[in-house]
Amino acid sequence: MEQSSDALTFFALLLPFAAAAVAPLATRLMGHRAAWLLALAPALIFLHFTTFLDEVSSGATITAGYAWIPALGVDFAWLIDGLSLTFALLITGIGALIVLYSGGYLKGHEHQGRFFSFILLFMGAMLGLVVSDNFLMLFVFWELTSITSFLLIGFDHRREASRRAAIQALAVTGLGGLSLLAGLLVVAGVTGEMSLSGLLGSGGAMRDSALYATALVLLLGGAFTKSAQFPFHFWLPNAMEAPTPVSAYLHSATMVKAGVYLVMRLNPAMGDTVMWATILPLFGGATLLVGGVLAVRQTDLKLMLAYTTVASLGLLVMLTGLGSEHAVAAAALYLVAHSMFKGALFMVAGVIDHEAGTRDVTKVGGLRRLMPVTASAAMLAAISMGGLPPMFGFLAKEEIYYATAGATPWLILVTLAALAGNALMFAVGFAVAIKPFFGVERETPKHAHEGPVLLWLGPLALAVAGVATALFSNVVHVLVSSPMATAIGGIPAEITISVVPHIGVPLALSLLTIVAGVAIYRSIDRLREMIAGMLAAIGWGPDRGFDQAIRGLIRASAAITSAIHHGRMDVYMGVTFTATAVALFAPMIVYGELPAWPAFPDLPFYEWTIIIIALIGLAAIVIAKDRLTAIVSLGIQGFAVAVIFMLLGAPDLSFTQFMVETLSVVILALVMTRLRLDPTDHRPLGEKLLDMAIAGTCGLGFTLMLLRVTQGTFDRTLSDFFEQWSYTIAHGRNIVNVILVDFRGVDTLGEIAVVMIAGLAILALIRIRPRAVPEPKPGPEL
Amino acid sequence: METALSVTVGCFFAISVYLLLSKHVIRIMLGVGVLGNAVNLLIFTNGRLLREVPPIIAPGMSTPAMEIANPLPQALVLTAIVISFSLFAFMLVLAFRAYQSLGTDDTDGMRVAEPADEKLPPLGY
Predict the structure, then answer these.
(1) What is the pLDDT of residues A29-39, one digit of tens each?
(2) Partners of A89 in the beta sheet?
(3) Which architecture, in CATH terms, is A569-714?
(4) Fewer CB under 10 Å: which end of chain B, C or N?
């Protein structure tokens, strides 16, 4: 039984990827109706995970898996407890609805199959992320969600705004992922555990470590970028460039909660420290307020919702940071509630956009009669978002105020932040649900009417789920919320809150939220202008900062490229030969291998003569004032070398050298007389001296190296071999010739090929006609 | 002999590097020509020197009767001479064509592949 259940879970985790593979084909065959088929995949996974509810709610934690890369301690292992199970159910449950919704939303889109594929890939990645037990598996899936998110945001890749948003999201969350990896490795180094279950079982080992702060900052770097915490919040609203199903699924219900998931997951092992309880509420609170305020400013329905999502994520992080029993319960409840109402509202915004042709809240109105189903879904979701009974959002809100109600200055501050944030979200939520549907009917770009079933099914299902879960809250608490709070808190928790309001401080705070929310709603137009004015006065934000950073990066790389790769050949050569000189001298000096001072050579006079002729030839090349002298001088040193070969027992070399030097001189003379090139030196004296220094050092280096080598012992193995066998096995008396045509015949073939290719290249160069030959100009300017 | 040739090789290298560091194509060509000889002499001297005894097995013998010049560096240098000549010829023609097309023999003026005023890559996304 256990075995087959493990195998089923393994296949459930792989199923989204399989579905992604067949999605394009299915869409080609069935059109948008493929959505019904593809939605089966998440629905089946959802059903599979519901089978764990019983076991998990009775307090069990299921860990299983297979070895993946045992040598590195990487397993494909999963951890299913209240937290990951809730996430898995949300991902697959909402995922099924989103697939259906995408079927209607992108009906007839030429790349609908690709879209299905991407969204199912994302689903697989996200599911893998939340059930991962192994650190590296967690990281792999974490980055996979970033990559699929990139693909989905940039789905409409023909628009620059879309490409920018995709790159921005990838840059922010991808870098965060690297930070997460570093953090996980620090944790693994400290505790010796490579899995979450191991870490959770390691007690306070991490908290007491000297590396706690390092690990925490690195891990939060991953969580805060993924969950769009201030000041990394800017990518999330930009990600609204994606098609609406993506916004509803990735950027409100699931992916952005990965950071929250991580924080919740680590809470038992890393929480309950001063650092944890300060950083998280601080950043969470700031995010909550910034998100709420910026949401009010927007008129685009999706952007309004996006900023409230930022605010909600801040709220979740803040609650997790507080870490008290009520705070953890509130975080669990709010996370579930948020996924339902925000997913529904996003899909509603998409329906309005799809059917009315605009999603500007100031340009639509009175759609209630035309789109009754969508309007009711929107209303239900907004009531939940506003935290009114009888919705699941109400339970979450009550629990939040239970958590924050307290008399310490810190808690009062947190309560105020929660109050302000909730009031802002209340106002924005109702603005999204009321403004487009009530009031006077407005002329919209498209003639609005109710969308097809695929479009309204998702939002309606989620909105109704918000009511149902609240009405049957005792069941939900037992099966989902309590186990989740248990997993976050690390101690058994029991949530009992129900839709029946209790008289007390939380209720009073709730009422205060509603009053403030209504006040904000009524003056939302004035507030919008005020905030817009304020932001214009500031004039800078992380979003612009991102653009500046990218431009700076491009400029800096261009500057570095042109500094190193400047196109001045004399400088390239100077650098090359300076490096050559260093390479010659450094080893000799470092290893103390400088040659001994040699005795003055005792040579016959004719050898001196030849050497002196060679040196005269060399000197003449450098100081030659006219072409002919330079060419003749080149010939002189070449012939001198040929004579040296002759004197030292190398007649073959000598013959070849004579021929080659003759040919070189002839060709050079042809070219130089044709071009009337001037061989004299035009460099200023300073450059000449520098070049002389480099050249002299190189020359000295070669001399010293050669002296040192010839003073050492000589290994004659190869030479002896050739001398021994040249006649015996190759039947040749000229050993050099035998080496070339017999022992190393293939090398000689290569040499011939090189000569031939050079000849062909020369032929090609001569035969191509120069394009519009410019008149030879005297100066270097072109 | 090795000492004398070592110093000679050093001079060959110094002159060739000095010519290569020039900005004028024709001087660079001359430098390439000298460089070939410098490298060949370097390899040749590395194999030790022996006067006037070519590596040839006398008739009637199956191995050399006395000490002969080292045949291995000679085989290497023979190949190198031919290859460096091919390279020299190719570069000369290349320089010839470059001069025809660009109208200059100054390497500072040959900026077609790496223009001096290269524009920034696009700053958008």
Answers:
(1) 998 899 999 99
(2) none
(3) Up-down Bundle (1.20)
(4) C
